[in-house]
UniProtKB/TrEMBL annotation, chain A:
Entries under InterPro entries matching the protein: DUF5682, LolB
Source organism, top-level taxon: Bacteria
Protein name: Uncharacterized protein
Organism taxonomic ancestry: Bacteria, Bacillati, Actinomycetota, Actinomycetes, Streptosporangiales
Residue ranges of the region described as Disordered: 106-131
TrEMBL record, chain B:
Name recorded for this polypeptide: MoxR-like ATPase
Pfam family for this entry, one: AAA_5
One term of GO molecular function: ATP hydrolysis activity
Tree of life domain: Bacteria
TM annotation in the entry: none
InterPro entries: ATPase_dyneun-rel_AAA, CbbQ/NirQ/NorQ/GpvN, P-loop_NTPase
Signal sequence region: none
Every ATPase dynein-related AAA domain range: 74-212
Amino acid sequence: MSVSVLGIRHHGPGSARSLRDELERLKPDIVLIEGPPEADALAGLAADPDLRPPVALLAHVPGEPARAAFWPFAEFSPEWQAIRHAVRTGVPVRFCDLPAAHGLALDRDGSPDGPADGDPGEGGPGAVAPAVPVDPIAALARAAGYDDPERWWEDAVEHRGDTPFEVIAEAMAAVRDGHVPDAREARREAYMRRTIRRAVKEGFERIAVVCGAWHVPALTGVPGGGGAWGAGLPPVKADDALLRGLPKVKAEITWVPWTYGRLASWSGYGAGVTSPGWYHHLFASADRPVERWLAAAAGVLRDEGLPVSSAHVIEAVRLAGSLAVLRGRPLAGLAEVTEAARAVLCEGDDLPVELIRRRMAVGERLGHVPDSTPMVPLQRHLREEQRRLRLKPEALDRELDLDLRKPLDLDRSGLLHRLRLLGVDWGVPARSRGKGTFRESWTLAWRPEFDVDLIGAGAWGTTVPAAASARARDLADGGPGSGRGSLADLTGLVERCLLADLPDALPYVLDALAARAALDNDVTHLMAALPAMVRARRYGDVRGTPAEGLTAIVDALLTRICVGLGAAVTGLDDDAARDLLRHIDEVHAAVALLDDGPAGGVSGDETPRGRWTAALRGLSGRSGLHGLIEGRLTRILLDAGDLDDAEAGRRMALSMSAGHPPARAAAWIEGFLSGGGLLLVHDARLLGLVDGWLAGLAPETFVDVLPLLRRTFGAFAAPERRSIGSRVRALGTRETAAAAADEIDEARAAAAVRTVLALLGRTETP
Amino acid sequence: MTTVLRAHAEDQFADELEILAKDDDRPRPPGWKLSPWAVTTYVMGDGEAVTPKYIGPRRIVEVAVATLATDRALLLLGVPGTAKTWLSEHLAAAISGDSTLLVQGTAGTAEEAVRYGWNYARLLAEGPSREAITPSPVMRAMAEGRIARVEELTRMPSDVQDALITVLSEKTLPIPELNEEVQAARGFNVIATANDRDRGVNELSSALRRRFNTVVLPVPATAEEEVDIVSRRVEQLGRSLELPETLTGLAEIRRVVTVFRELRAGVTEDGRTKVKSPSGTLSTAEAISVLTNGIALAAHFGDGVLRPSDVAAGIVGAVVQDPVSDRVVWREYLETVVREREDWRDFYRACRDAD
């Protein structure tokens, strides 16, 4: 009987290779692997060619999908190689770590210091960030004079490819000397020992244990402490005492597809696999890794149309080699080949280097799980939600009307919106039939491929809201499928987040929006984005979504608009001016909805409205404005009380004067009157100015400006036009505007006044 | 004390080179005065006797030295003010002990500056001979096995640039008039510098480009690093220009550096707000000149203390290169970033006045 404890580095390709050779040599009749024992039954799936790494074991608590832990495996993970070896040779595989049922229960009970795990390649269950009290690899690396433990491990172990496992065990024993494992680590190691003991009792002859190098001393006892396994280890009784009465939850486990991108980015996993693609390469290519890597990099660059010759690759290989010598490394590592690629292949340009990093160093590999795999928690969560919200998936189209004032319908709407964010278009919004913002109509139809989409979306999270939040954040980053999000895309995304009720994702998306807005040079884009944001902020909406953060964005947007508007209004042709006018009107309407902020301590110019008015005031005095815009600005300022009637009259006279071409004067009038013609009814002086200008036009110029005037006045309501007409007639008879006041019949008006006052909620004036 | 305004690197730091050479027991490439390790130490400093010359990532210097050791030519690229020339001078001084073999690239640089010229008096008197040749710095570097430096490579006309191709690929310089050639001795190499912003002025031909390993010198990575560089240089410059003593608060230096960094990077230092970048480069060198200028103002016209108003005009001048688009960028920055900072009030007012 023999027990071989093989210490590995999680996701270390060199480790994986030596482990593979060692297992060939040992020919064990059982393989024990560090991992959740619940997965014992699932290990057999590794024989299925459809289970392709990167994949992860996912343990979760049914009904509490947020409580989950992942154990990712890549092709180059030693654990994966151990599983493959066992499956190939037909020997049983068991996982020997603390069961996930306990691990997840301990997480919930809040073991205060988390999985204190000295193992460098391991964060334990991903739900808790590991607090590492001592980093053994770093200690060894410091002893060897390296500042970066990763590089030391690469140099000392990975690049050798033949480091015997005894040496690692001895080194770890030295590092662990005097280390007292905390409760969680002690339990895990006790469980590992218990699993080994059971295997021994069951009569297995050659037992191979594959675990993180850190645990080796705890599983082998005193190195060279005499023939039989178990010498110098804690007794069975102590281990049993440790493992007695552990909290337990019901945990389920399954395989899920994983990606190299997530392997690289997944925080909480202490393995620090920043470059899975490079590790894969080291593992998959038997010889000349540097040459092969740089040749492949040249291939990537050529695919993008960058000219890279074989001579480049030769020089890059030479540079990588001499850099490695200069840095005293046995073989060029990722740092050296990246420098060489940058200096030679990419000619110092960082963009192609980033391309190589993304395509090769991280890699875009996506794992795959066979159809026989148990269901992922996202599906399960959706199933529960469907039950809770009484929404049954049906293949046939079904119309659904929601009243968002009811909590049930509100939740339903949230679920459908979230699923749409995940690319599962179970419900498609239909045009709402009712009036009001609290109605929503959907067309529901469940299609079988949605299950596939859900498995794919499983990588985003384990519950629908969590996955949708992660997806929204990804979209905000310009993730796949969204392109480089434009400002409009991002405002759209903000709206979708509000609809889907994703308060976790919203701040992130808002940050992205703020960043994009800052870089956008086109003021009209900013102006187009503002009204929707103001509306969202002002009304929240029926959903009662908290929208903090929007205020800051709206404020920043407005500041940028005010600063940039000056440059945007000059040199416009008719179409551009009309376009900008629409934006100015929309922003003006939106600004009117903004609160004036805290009343005290802020002077008038500091409120949003004050700043906007100041910006417009600054513009309106400029020469060279398009007539349409100048007219409109004058009108806005007049309505805001910023200009008095006399000043408006002066400006009108100025722009009506003979120095301006008639077309511009007509445009001015259009801009000035586009808010309605009542002004002309009530201000006889302005009417007189228009009348005088019109009457003074030469016949042919009158014909020229007639279409413009027709458009302006045609937009007024018929009674307005009639009143203006009667005023114009009255102008001829010298009747003053004041006469208008005399025409009011007090008695007849009294009834209307009473009604208006009642509407305003005031009691009738005595 | 010498009377020269600026000493060569190998003279100024002769004692450091000597210390390094004495303790250097690593293998030296043929023709090198120091081993590659010692060259790297000379440039980066060792924290004791050897002062740091280049403050920045070590990997840049390592790639540069490794390149020169592989007999490939080195092209230092970067925006103006990122210490390209400075680094090339020190590399040449450390490797060859001689940083004077220099060709300055300009629009008017002729081929003779790269190959060789003729001493016409001798040419007429004696006919073509080796004695009648006036060697270029490149030719001398080849003959003596030293490092030749080419400054502002992309400012040279393309035909002059291409004269380097034979030199770099065949390591020989033919003299067809004499039916002879000069073969490079071991230790010869070329360090060229070129300006990122001038791309396209005289773009390198791909044949020449292929003979260089390119190293891009970055702008300083952290604010602390840049404050360090700026305050060092401002102090040195002030001393050599013999400006009267002024109280230069680190706070003011930090503020100028912060403004430059934020506008250059397009994001505030806390990473929370994006800002637009103006068209100018806003290099560290410009920050140094803004501060030196401000110190001169404070010393001669102010009360001897560097105040925001002394640097405000300089900053506005450095940022607003294009009067239309840059002014919008600057005003946006002023209104959205500077105004928000409580302790920058005086600076905000000074900038508003200078605008």
